[in-house]
Amino acid sequence: MKPSPETRDAAFDRLVAEALQTQPMPAGAESPVLERLKTIEEYLRASVAPVSQPALIYRDDAAATRALPILEKVTVGRDAACDLAFPDKRTFSRRHFSVGREDGFFVLRDHGSRNGTFINGQADAIAEHVLRDGDIISAGGRLFVFSSGSQDVVSASP
Fold this sequence. Notes:
By secondary structure, the protein is α+β, with helices and mostly antiparallel strands. The chain has helices at residues 5-21, 32-47; strands at 55-59, 65-69, 73-77, 84-85, 97-102, 105-110, 117-119, 128-131, 136-139, 142-147. The longest helix has 17 residues, at 5-21.
């Protein structure tokens, strides 16, 4: 029997809360956090129409799953001038992070945020990271999944 949307949303909220509260493991370590993050990725991808271009997939304040297309560069933060703004969320810096296209890659950059930007449940905040399809970004108490869409994007080696 398939769970109702309310049950799925409650399960998703629980997984996100657990993933954000669990101490991330060092790179390369087996981690229940990574398992939870992959479940979250699957949920987010299943909850939004397929994206045909690179995008950040996330849940908004109303718990609706959204996709923010990345044409050349998008900025996420608290400032209203950001492409994706969370003005009431003090856990975000004014310009927290950006994702931009560079030489066939999509590069995630933290803009000196106070609370850091994390990738795939790793313990160390990043300054810059070459994104691969399915990478999970944690920033400001929110999770974002990078989707390369249908475009060919050069994959970085792990």
